[in-house]
Write a structure and sequence with these properties.
This protein has helices at about 10-15, 20-35, 45-50, 90-100, 110-115, 140-155, 165-170, 200-210, and strands at about 40, 60-65, 120-125, 130, 160-165, 180-185. With about 220 residues, it is of the alpha/beta class. α7 links the parallel β5 (about 160-165) and β6. It is globular and about 45 Å long.
Length: about 220
């Protein structure tokens, strides 16, 4: 599972690929893709990094696992392919976006327009078995994505980290440099959105911080 993202993440990932944990992860992934149905497609695994370079990253939204049903996952956290029914968590994100800054609730669940503006839509785990949620946790992806967060943390240019839910909020311990901005709340899933996600205004707060630091805000 060679990494080819075509931007400045590549020099970082060239280092990661040589590490023992990634070599073991790649071996496991090759077997998984050969023997069972895995999402997303192999060519989509690293889309979050392909669409959003290291230098252009201004916001990082951290998710958990890819969607595990057919035609949903395409390498961007919370996003689904065009034409696919919008999942409940993403619909709640759209509702909060509408309440926060007045963006009409979208009918398309593809978030590549965010990614191309500098929003890194990063799942902690980048692959999953079909219809088996969390099936690739502890395969090795967590070390890879934690390292990506650490590389962003080491950058001088400020980044907004948006952490929704307890899983993502644990990543705050990796974000130690004071120039960055952390936005935390409950997860947008139907089970928890009413317990702190709705009304949290992550989109306007992110853009206020970006403007304060002379960074072009996101057109959500």
């Amino acid at each position: 599972m060679a990494i080819n993202v075509g931007n400045d993440w590549q020099s970082i990932f060239d280092i990661e690929e040589k590490k023992e944990y990634y070599i073991k992860l790649r071996e496991k992934l090759v077997k998984e893709y050969l023997t069972t149905t895995i999402f997303p497609n192999k060519e989509d695994i690293f889309n979050a990094f392909k669409y959003c370079s290291y230098e252009s990253t201004k916001v990082c939204i951290i998710g958990q696992d890819p969607y595990h049903d057919v035609n949903q996952a395409h390498g961007l956290a919370f996003s689904v392919k065009e034409g696919v029914k919008i999942p409940p968590s993403l619909l709640n994100i759209y509702k909060e976006l509408n309440d926060d800054i007045g963006v009409p609730i979208k009918t398309c669940g593809c978030l590549d327009d965010w990614a191309k503006q500098g929003v890194l839509l990063l799942n902690a785990v980048l692959t999953v078995r079909a219809h088996q949620a969390a099936s690739h946790r502890k395969l090795g992806w967590e070390q890879f994505t934690d390292n990506a967060i650490k590389y962003l943390n080491d950058r001088e240019k400020p980044v907004v980290f948006i952490l929704w839910g307890n899983f993502a909020r644990k990543k705050a311990e990796l974000i130690t440099n004071s120039q960055h901005y952390i936005i935390e709340s409950a997860h947008p899933s139907p089970l928890s959105a009413s317990r702190g996600f709705f009304g949290s205004k992550p989109f306007s707060n992110a853009n206020k911080f970006l403007l304060k630091n002379n960074i072009i805000p996101v057109k959500w």
